[in-house]
């Protein structure tokens, strides 16, 4: 890769006939259009490209006119900020008019449309996100982003404090992009600016904060980024629950995940750095406005006690029947990762890792058995609905669980009959 980089051979998606037709339509009559941002960055790095955004000199109304004339559907998803979504060949492309900020308040910006590519690049956050690509794959780099990609270096464009004051979310984005694309130590000026301005994070919506944290925790290895976040005081600012708990377990969890083929799981990684306290997890979920599923998962994990590595499958099955299977899966995964980390110098930990691995495999395959007796079976024996019937049913289920789910229906019915006579 060089300062005169090209996407040639790196971006099959660029040859898509619908994308090329859209770029051609937007460029006619002296206008210009280029692929912008993350798609260019990821193609140069060699990572998958999900969304393809386009920057253009055409104003939104003209973008709509040209795209529809070319046979594409348009949706004015952010027309006040210059963004039109164009559906071309079944794929969405966000086309945004070149812009310059005229007013910012730390959360959002008022913009004016323009035709200056350098001004458009300089209003973006990081150099690696401010790259453009022509339709033929030629990369246009106006801020030194190609060199930073080569060095796996994350830098704010221009003055770091100025970029952050435009939108305080850029503090979290600094660590998120460092987790995904950075190497070595974070840029010193960027790190200092994030530390100095961290109080501005309180001005952000909970949804934006959790969205960035979730993306950061989904990185292949977020451990270094989390370490620097803690050093800068940023982690405590957005996740105070981690302050006296720590992030030491993250590295071992990431390594275990890679070795064992686990998908990157941001909620499991969150569980690794916060205390298993149901009350505090409820507060965390409400503060960050987690989804109902995410908040419930945290709560169930916090209420579940991790099993000992030596328990038998039968004993674990009894715990699973009376508890929450997903809570146990999370607990066992974290315990397994911790044991694997200690196993380097601890024979007992090595044995524990083997035990937790066995228990995890069992838990993942376990299906909750169905108790073979119902209340209707007891009423058929002459029992009247009421406390005695309920207590009898509960006692029978307890015996069935303690037997390792081996007591058959016939045996249970005989015991029910005897119990109802007393």
TrEMBL record:
InterPro entries in UniProt: Bact_CCA-adding_enz_type3_sf (IPR050264), NT_sf (IPR043519), PolA_pol_head_dom (IPR002646), PolyA_RNA-bd (IPR032828)
UniProt keywords, alphabetically: Magnesium, Metal-binding, Nucleotide-binding, Nucleotidyltransferase, RNA-binding, Transferase, tRNA processing
Matches recorded under Gene3D superfamilies: Beta Polymerase, domain 2, cca-adding enzyme, domain 2
Cofactor: Mg(2+)
Domain tRNA nucleotidyltransferase/poly(A) polymerase RNA and SrmB- binding: 190-242
Record-linked CDD domains: NT_ClassII-CCAase
Pfam families: PolyA_pol, PolyA_pol_RNAbd
Keyword flag Transferase: yes
Keyword Flavoprotein: no
Domain Poly A polymerase head: 33-155
Family under the similarity heading: Belongs to the tRNA nucleotidyltransferase/poly(A) polymerase family.
Protein name in UniProt: CCA tRNA nucleotidyltransferase
């Amino acid at each position: 890769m060089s300062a005169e980089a090209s996407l040639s051979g790196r971006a099959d998606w660029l040859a898509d006939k619908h994308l090329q037709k859209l770029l051609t339509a937007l460029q006619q009559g002296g206008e210009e259009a280029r692929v912008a941002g993350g798609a260019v960055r990821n193609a140069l790095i060699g990572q998958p490209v999900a969304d393809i955004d386009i920057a253009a000199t055409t104003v939104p109304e003209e973008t709509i006119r040209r795209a529809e004339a070319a046979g594409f559907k348009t949706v004015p998803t952010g027309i006040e900020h210059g963004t039109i979504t164009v559906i071309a060949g079944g794929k969405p492309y966000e086309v945004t008019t070149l812009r310059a900020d005229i007013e910012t308040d730390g959360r959002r910006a008022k913009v004016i449309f323009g035709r200056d590519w350098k001004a458009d690049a300089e209003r973006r956050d990081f150099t690696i996100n401010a790259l453009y690509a022509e339709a033929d794959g030629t990369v246009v780099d106006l801020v030194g982003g190609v060199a930073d990609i080569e060095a796996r270096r994350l830098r704010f464009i221009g003055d770091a404090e100025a970029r952050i004051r435009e939108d305080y979310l850029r503090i979290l984005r600094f660590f998120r992009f460092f987790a995904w694309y950075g190497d070595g130590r974070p840029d010193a000026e960027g790190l200092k600016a994030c530390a100095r301005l961290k109080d501005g994070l309180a001005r952000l919506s909970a949804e934006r904060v959790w969205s960035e944290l979730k993306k950061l925790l989904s990185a292949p290895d977020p451990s270094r980024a989390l370490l620097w976040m803690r050093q800068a005081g940023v982690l405590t600012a957005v996740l105070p629950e981690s302050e006296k708990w720590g992030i030491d377990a993250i590295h071992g969890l990431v390594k275990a995940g890679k070795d064992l083929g686990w998908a990157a799981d941001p909620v499991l990684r969150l569980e690794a750095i916060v205390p298993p306290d149901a009350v505090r997890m409820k507060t965390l979920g409400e503060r960050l406005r987690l989804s109902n599923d995410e908040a419930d998962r945290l709560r169930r994990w916090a209420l579940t006690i991790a099993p000992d590595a030596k328990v038998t499958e039968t004993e674990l099955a009894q715990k699973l029947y009376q508890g929450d299977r997903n809570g146990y899966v999370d607990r066992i995964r974290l315990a397994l990762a911790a044991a694997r980390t200690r196993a380097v110098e601890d024979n007992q930990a090595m044995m524990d890792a083997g035990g937790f691995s066995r228990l995890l495999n069992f838990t993942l395959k376990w299906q909750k058995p169905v108790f073979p007796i119902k209340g209707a079976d007891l009423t058929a024996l002459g029992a009247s609905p009421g406390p005695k019937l309920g207590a009898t049913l509960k006692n029978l289920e307890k015996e069935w669980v303690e037997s390792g789910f081996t007591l058959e229906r016939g045996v249970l019915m005989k015991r029910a009959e005897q119990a109802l006579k007393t």
